[in-house]
Every structure is written in structure tokens, then in C-alpha cells.
Specification:
Largest sheet: none
Helix content: over 70%
Number of helices: 5
Number of domains: 1
Shape: globular
Order of helices and strands: HHHHH
Length: 120
Amino acid sequence: MVTALSILLVGIGGSIGACLRFLISGAAPSIKGMPTGTLTVNAIGTCILAFLAYSTIGMDVIYPITIGVLGSFTTFSTFAYESFHLLEEGSLNLSITNIASNVTFCFAGAGLGWALATLI
């Protein structure tokens, strides 16, 4: 059930996630022209999301974190734009590497989150 409090908590979480994304993606060094900041936040966010989803933590706690914090922390749209932009610049190999890296690291992050949740 959506309440004013749940909307407020998701909004607060979104503010936190956006600030964290700004700090972490900005601190990640670009490696040979690859946008590693987006890769970093997506992989971390996927791991945390999977951990929470497979944990026994109550949904009243999970929603503000997953929708709020992680929803603004991770970014599919920036990943897609950066991959397309690399292709547009003629960096086909770098674009493919970015796509493959995001899928691989996020999938691994989901597996790691699941494994951590099952250990607890």
C-alpha cells in the first residue's frame, strides 16, 4: 500500500542514491576511454539489490532502499547512452566491451548478492 510516508522514504532514498552515484561514478577512473563510473555503480547496485531481494529483510525496509537509493544510484539509461556514444565515435570494440562488461559484472553482482544473502 502506497502511503505518504513510503513516498517520502523513497524520495529521501532517491536523493541519497543520486548523491552516491555522483560521487562514486565521478571518482572511478576512465580506463582506455571506457566509462567505468557507470559500470561501477551498476555492478555495486546490482549486488546490493540481489542481496536485499534474497534476504529476509522486510519489504517496508527494502522498498525505500531498492526503489529510492538503488533506483537513482544505478542507471541503465546512462549505460545505453555511453555505449551508443562510443559506437557513434567509431569505437565499436570499446562499445562492445562496455556492453559486455556491464552485463557480465552486473550478472556476477547479482550472483554475489544472492550468495551473500543465502549465507546469512
